[in-house]
Amino acid sequence: MWLVSTPRPTETDDVVHDARRALEWAAEAHGDGMCLTASFGDATLVHVAASTLPGIEVTLLDTGYLFAETEWFADTVADRYDITLRIVRPAADLERDVWQTDQSACCAARKVEPLNRALADRSAWVTGLRRSDSAGRASTPLVHTDLMRSIVKVNPLAAWTDDTVAAYAALHEFPEHPLADRGYPSIGCWPCTRPVADDADPRSGRWADTDKTECGLHVS
Q1: CA dihedral in degrees (195, 199, 201, 204; nearest 10)?
Q2: Which of its termini does the chain have fewer beta carbons within 10 Å around, N or C?
Q3: C-alpha to C-alpha distances, 124 to 33, 45, 95, 214, nearest whole angstrom
Q4: Is 161 helix (H, G, I), strand (E, B) or coil?
Q5: Residue percentage of the chain with pLDDT more than 90
Q6: Other C-beta atoms lying within 10 Å of the C-beta of residue 46
Q7: pLDDT for 5
Q8: 58: alpha, beta or left, given left = phi > 0 and alpha = psi -120 to 50?
Q9: Strand ranges (DSSP E) for the chain?
């Protein structure tokens, strides 16, 4: 029996609660062994993490090909919220223009290898994966073991829909990535990301005009 003065929890309340609980569990179980990575396409994961675990370290994989707007946005979000920003970059001796001939090799060198280094001494990896991102991510669990890396993978936002993200962003008055209103609902590296139509798959601008749908970070 709900009292009139007690609002019924909404779906957004439930998934936010679950996200915070997942982060609290990861911090308690893994401590300094936890690594949270964020691409800074938006501020959702960073805000949830900072408000749950103040001072948390957030890792950005700087591929060397991030949009200038993404670099600015990461600095802006880090200044606004209580986090420690850790930047991990590719090895210095990479072939610069490999993206023009082999996008998978470029992702492997500029994303996967730096991630492996970032996780080398960690036991848990926290990501911003959501089931609503794509069909390939539709079964993303809240917590599971990444068998390729032998690490616990925590996806606090797994159950969040686009509507949940929008409602949470409006409630907390997030800063918005400068490219979000220019047709970039999913933002990766500048050579391989294109704007998309309003009614198109949000991730269709990633590796546009190719069969590629994932960079390799979340392939298990």
Answers
A1: -30
A2: N
A3: 6, 16, 31, 21
A4: coil
A5: 69
A6: 25
A7: 42
A8: beta
A9: 34-37, 56-61, 83-88, 124-126, 143-146, 151-154
Q: Are 43 and 180 in contact (CB under 8 A)?
A: no
- By three-state DSSP, how is residue 195 classified? coil
Q: Which of 77, 112, 74 minimizes the C-alpha distance to 91?
A: 112
What predicted TM-score, i.e. pTM, was given to this entire model? Answer: 0.89
**Residue 208's pLDDT is what?**
77
Q: Please choose, from the candidates 23, 17, 15, 19, the residue with its C-alpha nearest in 3D space to the C-alpha of residue 56.
A: 23
C-alpha–C-alpha distance, residues 44 and 168, integer Å: 8
The set of catalytic residues is 215
- Rounded to whole angstroms, how far apart are CA atoms 27 and 35? 10
| pLDDT, tens digit (0-9, with 9 covering 90-100), for 39-66 | 999 999 999 999 999 999 999 999 999 9
Domains, the chain, ordered by start: 11-205 (3.40.50.620)
Which parts of the chain sit beneath pLDDT 50? Answer: 1-9
- Entry field: residues in the chain: 220
Whole-number Å distance between alpha carbons of 10 and 57: 30
Q: Could you give the CA distance from residue 198 to residue 201 in angstroms, rounded to a whole number?
A: 8
